[in-house]
Amino acid sequence: MPEPEITATLKNALIHRIGEHSIFTGDIYGDVHNRWPDGSHIRTSMVDRVEGDLVYTRNSIYKIDNG
Q: What is the pTM assigned to this prediction?
């Protein structure tokens, strides 16, 4: 199975539950689409699923790095 293409890394990430759904907030680094400069605090769109340290949204895959 091929490795998923990581869209960006989220540091200082927190999960927020909104009813049945979830989002993450955190500081983004390495955004492959150049939407935000490194260190910008962002909010993801609704989370489709979480697998280990990867967060999947409709259009992005974020790697969580809270280390």
A: 0.91
Contacts 24+ apart (CB under 8 A), 19-26: 21/46, 21/47, 22/46, 22/47, 23/47, 24/55, 24/62, 24/64, 26/64
Cβ-count burial 9-36 (b if 16+ within 10 Å, e if not): bbeebeeeeeeeebbbebbbbebeeeee
Q: Which two tokens stand for residue 57?
A: 């949204």
12-67 pLDDT, tens digit per residue, is: 999 999 999 999 999 999 999 999 999 999 999 999 999 999 999 999 999 999 98
| Distance (Å, whole) CA 20 – CA 2 | 30
Tokens of 38: 């490194």
